[in-house]
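Task card 7
Instruction: Convert sequence to structure tokens.
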Amino acid sequence: MRDGLFISITLALVAAVVLWLVPWMGFSIAPKALWWLAGGAALFAGLLVLLGESIVEDGIKVGFMLACAGVLWLSDARLAVFFVIVLLSGAAGMAMNQLNRFTARRARTMVETRR
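Output:
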């Protein structure tokens, strides 16, 4: 139950931030493409919350994706938007995963102290 809640919050948060921040930063992208990018970023962040166990594992996943986005950026400067989106979604996904893990540990501790 709690995992689904954190995944839903992450999906909505990342999609909203990408839809707002990418045009604000000056990237000119067609609205349809921006929606697709926001959906992909939200999916990446949600998968980090779903699959992530530790901050090291999340860091490895985000680092790999940042390296791929960096290669795209170096190949064509107009593709820098991918680096920004991966950075935003990776940071949000890692933060929400750690918050999810903290609340799970806290709930377990509270149940064990009641016994």
